Amino acid sequence: MSKDDSKLESPERRELIKVSGLALGGLLIATCLPPVIHKSAATQIVEEGASGDSPAGPAELGAFIRIDPTGGVTLIMPKIEMGQGVQSSLAAMLAEELEVDLSQVTLQEAPPNEELYVDPILNFQATGGSTSARSFWRPLREAGATGRILLVQAAADEWGISSEVCEARNGAVHGPDGQQLGYGELVEAAAELPVPEQIPLKSPDQFRLIGKPLQRLDTPPKVNGSAKFTTDLQLTDMKIATTRTCPVLGGTLASVDDREARRIPGVREIIPLKDAVAVIGDHTWAAIQGARALKVEWNFGDNARLSSEQIEQALRDAADRDGALATDEGDIDAALDGVDTQIEAEYEMPFLAHAALEPMSCVAQVRVDACELWVGTQVPVMAQQAAAKVSGLPPEKVIVNNQLIGGAFGRRLEVDFIAQAVDIARNVFYPVKLIWTREEDTTHDLYRPHYLDRFRAGLDGNGLPVGWSHTIVGGSVMARFSPQALGENGLDPDAIEISAKPIYHLPNLRVRYVPEDPVALRVSWWRGVGQLHGAYVVEGFIDELAIAAEQDPVDYRLRLLQDQPRAQAVLRLAAEKAGWGQTLPDGHGRGVAVHQVFGSYLATVVELATTPQGGLRINRLICAVDCGLALNPTSVRSQIEGGTLFGLSAALFNEVTVKDGHVQQSNFHDYRQIRISDAPPVEVHLIDSQETPGGIGEAGTALIAPALVNALYAATGKRIRRLPLSRAGYHVLAREA
Amino acid sequence: MPTLTINGDTHQVDVPEDMPLLWVLRDVLGMTGTKYGCGIAQCGACTVHLDGNAVRSCVLPVGGVEGKRIETIEAMENSELGRSVQSAWLEHEVVQCGYCQSGQIMSAVALLSKTPQPDDKEIDLGMSGNLCRCCTYTRIRGAIKSVAKA
Ligand code: FES
Ligand code: FES
Question: Which residues form the Aldehyde oxidase/xanthine dehydrogenase a/b hammerhead domain (chain A) (predicted)?
């Protein structure tokens, strides 16, 4: 950590913290976020809003800390918990400097619209892009320190002594002669004091919570069934709805025969919508049964004949267009001219559904004067805007009560299902809980784009690259989500993530992006976002260069990473732990991938066994991580473990395809996911680091697929460039006893 | 009107006999610890115990479970094994989003009550009906083994 991080002296920064008293007594500290320095393209969007209509930029994002007269500390949580442990990590930052125990901190989901917290909380908030720890790293610690300084000063004033001789510990201020005052007794006086001129922060060796393996705050109710997700909510007079939405994107409802559905016990209402029919029932079973019994005629529209083959052909055709230039360094044409060793390759990644275990769901009630939502969302303000649009109410009349999320992986950055819930609820006077069936969830997702990548590179006499040309073709998530973020000719900063600037030393680098949106599917953010795509193709192709150069894939990478010490370190560590270089039996192989992802450095090694019949068993999976200072080492490990297997599941099995405009996969039998019996143990090795914390929720996901295909090549001599592996005939073998 | 014995209590529920137990638990009795994930016995989020066996309540018509002993996640803290599985889950930091974990714990308790010292194969067999999209499998295995050892 650099020196200037331990003291805060800049007056502009000081203005970012506001302190005030509360009407009911207590101390309120508001802190505003400065712009974050290292951001992925996707991050920038989710933080700064979409489509240019977000009400606030990042400098106005805020968090509130409330200390009440009983000494209770409430952190009004701007980031939603999706399993990444973010809320506990943020609470630890606050508790560390405030000198309270983690158990003294109560978390409260930030509403976008509640009177008490008008200003900063009303503004755009989002959870995604692995940014939470990075954006809050300083502001929350500063807020905690501000609180502590004020409380200590208040105690010192009370005792008539200098604050220098007082100490804050465990939610109380202690004086030199054994005096003691709890925070609760001090809040009123503290609220009257001016914000301190200087806010010194602890150095890492003084941390008692940060960097320690802490138990998360949100887990106890999740092991006894008492945690409530959106799907679990029960409100007075609430009824339950499910929908059948037109199976072809862009189609509309022609007519519906609901006579049979109405005969089902418990069915209350059938509500035709523009592109869907909703069935409201006393319970979910009635709604589901009713929806099944509907006889629906659709106008399928223009997409009725579209199939995957056509979508893929369109990508191939587009590859020859100029598109947008992302990088043009040196002279690639001159560099490759006359070079003997030239390598070309084409990679492909499929459309992917999110398949979070909690299906899309939202509780909505539309009253005359207001609309109220109870929904787990990564983007509360977008939810508010969507509800306002559908209900016709102004946004400030939309109340959003954010909820725990049962896995999102980017899906709850979208608000389509929220708009649909409001569209249904505005027809009735009671609250409606919309739950999509798994089938609706799979077939009406917004999918990770299908990408086609073409490479050409030349090697010199030492096998090192002299030129690297890369063309990326695929749908642009940014073009829909935030068109103003696009560069010239539709340059999508997310689609070129990693590819535009690989960490390797690559002279004469040209990278192009050709936007080609699929017509029959919408595309969106998916865990790992642009880095997932970039890491896969770059790490696959660099491996091909190593093989062409007849060099060891680890050594080859190390040579091209001369000015990347952190990347070299994780690569060396992963290789060492994996026993890289030790002989393996025939049909076995090791593969590696390394990159900087989301501000962290990660290297993954896969060791696997194959059979001639296409059987595949991963025997070892090793990740070495430098994520800067690990806020909570246990959370880092579990995010890397889970994220890696999440990426593995997709790389092995998943592909969304379209026939006659219909998505062909529907549930976990035909969109299968990795099970415990398929899952190798993940070995995670952390590098001790004091650098600024990096993102970890998506890093593991991004690096598993390239390590996997590289290992498969080592084992079989066959290079798989198109995911998933099941497409190439591979299947997972049972683990060895 | 089916009569059900759930977590030791008797409930009379006025629902059609073909309604899956899952929806009776969640929407009629308000016991929402048991989750919906797929509705076709593929994910295990809805796992409950029927006479001590782990079953998928999303495909279990309520008419067929009269007179049987039904137990749900809400009752796990009442048994010693249930409590030790729950605390192993917390100690091993298994949980991520948590949505699958009621089902995971129900399957783990059923497995451990029949096979107190399961090996890797037996864990795979007992737990492979339960998907975790957050992929907490490494830690699930660790937590089960720690209960087995104790
Ligand atoms: S909901 Fe019953 S197994 Fe998935
Ligand atoms: S913890 Fe999220 S699905 Fe298992």
Answer: 224-302
